[in-house]
Amino acid sequence: MPYLEGQLQDFKEAYGFQSPFAGFYYCYSSPEQQWAFYARYIQSLWDAPTGQTYYDLAEIVRGKEVFVLTTNVDMQFERVFPQNSICSYQGNVGYFQCSQPCHDRIYPNENLIREMCENMLGMRIPSELLPRCRECGRIMVPWVRDDTFLEGRDWKDGVIRYESFLKQCLTKEKAKSVLLLELGVGEMTPGIIKLPFWEMAYKNKGAFYVCMNQEDSSSPEHLKNKSLYIDGDLSKTLRDLKQIMKGKAGTGK
């Protein structure tokens, strides 16, 4: 894992973490230790270059009506696609929320995250830099899915935009041209993307479901003629697809 071998190597050695996910949900002895990990990890995501895969995807769908439903929290989609065309269903690490939560608001965190990292003492941050809620004084947490996740105005707005997009596209007039493209979705939360996509592909005559993933899989029996699975490295698949589309555009086909 590149993050653990770079920015988080000391946490890996001290705690035995095998992935950033393990460190993110670890039960630390103090909030100063917890936020030291959060801050280092979140800063690494702020500083990470935008993946070429996202640029390739944007190029492939250029000129099309597009909406992104994502369970990623790493801020990559927001760099390439318009914010009003994205629903970040599991949140976004670029924001804080109250850990209560006592009110319906999220806050951009980049400046404070960088200040924490600049003033870190070992694997702890100074207590005075702990992010605290402006309303109740409780310690803030990253705006990502857990048992305190704020499904407030910002989250609901994203869901409403997504549902409105589907309602508009899955009409009898447009359903023949709807592609439900699932990219690299795991098995932890199939109820967010995978299962709804199966249902929409089945119920809408013209909708077609495509899944691209690292491992081979099979489509449900009821989608036998309305689905396609493409296994392999996602970045290579999209890069190759972009080149094929460019070739066709050059020939006018």
- Specify the helix fraction band: 25-40%
Strand order of the largest sheet: 4-3-5
Architecture per CATH nomenclature, i.e. the level-2 architecture of the domain at 52-85 and 172-251: 3-Layer(aba) Sandwich
* Beta content: 5-15%
CATH names the topology of the domain at 52-85 and 172-251 as: Rossmann fold
Query: What class do helices, strands and sheet pairing give?
Result: alpha/beta
Rounded mean pLDDT score: 92
CATH superfamily of the domain at 52-85 and 172-251: TPP-binding domain
C-alpha end-to-end distance: 42 Å
As an assembly, this protein is single chain
Order of helix and strand elements from N to C terminus:
HHHHHEHEEEHEHEHEEH
CATH class of the domain at 52-85 and 172-251: Alpha Beta
Compute the number of strand runs: 8
Shape descriptor: globular
| pLDDT < 50 stretches | none
Keywords: Metal-binding, NAD, Transferase, Zinc
Protein name: NAD-dependent protein deacetylase
InterPro entries: DHS-like_NAD/FAD-binding_dom, Sirtuin_cat_small_dom_sf, Ssirtuin_cat_dom
Binding site for Zn(2+): 98, 102, 133, 136
Describe this structure in words.
There is one protein chain. With 253 residues, this protein is of the alpha/beta class. The protein has a domain at 52-85 and 172-251: Rossmann fold, CATH 3.40.50. Helix content is 40%, strand content 15%. It is built from 10 helices and 8 strands. The strands form 3 sheets. The protein has a 3-stranded antiparallel sheet with strand order 4-3-5, with helices on one face. The protein has a 3-stranded parallel sheet with strand order 6-7-8, with helices on one face. Helix 4 (31-47) crosses helix 7. The longest helix has 18 residues, at 234-251. The mean pLDDT is 92.
